[in-house]
Amino acid sequence: MNFLLLTSIEFKKIRHSKILLILAAATIILWLPSIFNASINFNMQAEGISPENNFFIQGFMGMSWFMFPASMVVGTVLLSQTERTNNGILKMLVLPVSTMKLCLAKFTVLLTLAATQILMMTGMYYTSAIICSKTQDYNFILPALFVLKEISLLFLSAIPMITFFWMLSVCIQTPGFSIITGLVSIVPSVLVINTKAWFAYPMSYQFYVITSEYGKLAANLDTNQIKLIPWIPVAIVITIICLSISCLCFGHAERK
After folding, report:
1. What is the 3-state secondary structure (H, E, C) of 25-54?
2. Residue 215 and residue 94: Cα distance in Å, rounded?
3. 163: pLDDT confidence band, cut at 50, 70 and 90?
4. Phi, psi (deg, nearest 5) at residue 120
């Protein structure tokens, strides 16, 4: 069974799950305060940022710090549990399919879910910006190319974090403990980004990126700027290690 066919099967397994509903609900909840409190974006003169840029960046900062990582924690565990329900993983393991391929296929689905939520987030941003533009009589809508660049950076920077959460869901058999561990790991990111060792903590990556972009948009605000070295090499190493451990441990407990 080739990898593409295996991946398509994994996508079919989540069609009737609640994963997409959870991702959509989290996205909608995140943007509601931005709509209700749109007027506060005009009170950022001290930071030197325009209302439309502040509207965009504040929404994505809220997402990058907690909502998006938390959604990935829950989504990762639910994705992992699709095989453990009714011992489905045992049925897959008896097939002539490499466990590594199966693990990577599920991880591909997870990355697709992450990209899907970011696209949902972008759609809600534009919806919210249109609503606020009418209620505040001010154009909150930013150019599509700028938004595309920001969401691309957000997705790419989140990949190491997602591999870490996937490793947790594979190695920790108890769903509740896996979720708690993942959620707890998110909280320190707001503190880690202010240290010199932020690049060693993958849960802080996307928040650091968005915070750095905030500093570029706000003329009077000084934030840490991204240094590709040592960040990129460390991020690649973390991703490889977490994904390798996931592939090695996937299905191991069920084989016992």
Report:
1. HHHHHHHHHHHHCHHHHHCCHHHCCCHHHH
2. 53
3. very high
4. -60, -45
pTM of the model: 0.91
CA nearest 72: which of 164, 172, 209, 173? 164
For the CA atoms of 23, 27, 28, 34, what is the dihedral angle to 10 degrees? 170
Tens digit of pLDDT for each residue in 15-71? 777 888 889 998 999 899 999 999 999 987 777 889 999 999 999 998 998 899 999
Task: Give the pLDDT band (50/70/90) at residue 127.
Answer: very high
CA dist., res. 41 & res. 33, Å (int): 12
> For residue 162, what pLDDT is reported?
96
In whole numbers, what is the pLDDT of the chain averaged over residues? Answer: 87
> Number of C-alpha atoms within 13 angstroms, CB side, residue 200?
5
Q: Write the DSSP symbol of residue 139.
A: -
Q: Please enumerate, as own/partner, the contacts of 149-153 that have beta carbons within 8 Å and a separation of 24 or more.
A: 150/56, 150/60, 150/210, 150/213, 151/118, 151/119, 151/121, 151/122, 153/209, 153/213
> Which tokens belong to 83?
């095989």
Question: Residue 162 is encoded by which pair of tokens?
Answer: 């997602």
Smallest Cα–Cα separation from 44: which of 241, 220, 255? Answer: 220
Q: Residue 29's CB: how many other CB atoms inside 10 A?
A: 11
Residue 169 CB partners (closer than 8 Å, separation 6+) = 76, 77, 79, 80, 178, 182
21 burial (CB, 10 Å; 0-12 / 13-18 / 19+) is exposed
